[in-house]
Structure formats: C-alpha cells, structure tokens
Amino acid sequence: MPARPHLAAIAACLLATPTAALEITHEYRIPGDALRSVELVPHANEDPGLLRLMLRADGVDRLLEIESDGPLAECLTILQNIQGQPDRVAVLSVNMTALTLNGVLLERCGTR
Asked: Organism's domain of life (predicted)?
C-alpha cells in the first residue's frame, strides 16, 4: 500500500488540531528615569501578585500594572535599583498565554 494516503491523513489531523504553540508576549522597555514609583501589591486570595509601576513619559504620568502567577519580589528589587537612573533600562517580558492559573506570567525582568 502506498505511503502517501497515510501522510495525507496525518497532515489532515495536524491541520485540524488547535495550535498549542501560540504564545503572546508583551515586552516593555522602561528607562530608569521614567520610573516614578514601583510597588508590589499582593493578591488577597490567590497566588498572583500585582506589580504596579507609575511611569512618566512625554510629560504624562501613566500607570502600568502587571499581574503574574510567578514571583515578583526579585523584579521589584531590580526596578527599585534602577529607578531614577537615565542610563539604565528595565526589560520586562510578560507571557499573556502562559499555562498558569490566570494565564499571565512575568517571564523576564532584567536591565540593560
């Protein structure tokens, strides 16, 4: 029996399944001198915490809140250490389709 009908059947099955590899990631690059305040707000009933950043950009204050099912304390320290420093930039990567309870995970928090 030729192998081609089997390959066609396998390809049809693969095309019919949902894409498990779809990942949506937001990346934020925040200059240290744009960080006005940084606060960690623990959630009352669940694991996720809330990282609350007050930013100043183009003369306007902006609030950025990042909820994550993962730990945030180390990121808080990193952000506090670069706050007010114009030559430092925070890089935060947030996975919006993580396989966690709420589907949001701060995957990277660092500086450059």
From this structure: Bacteria
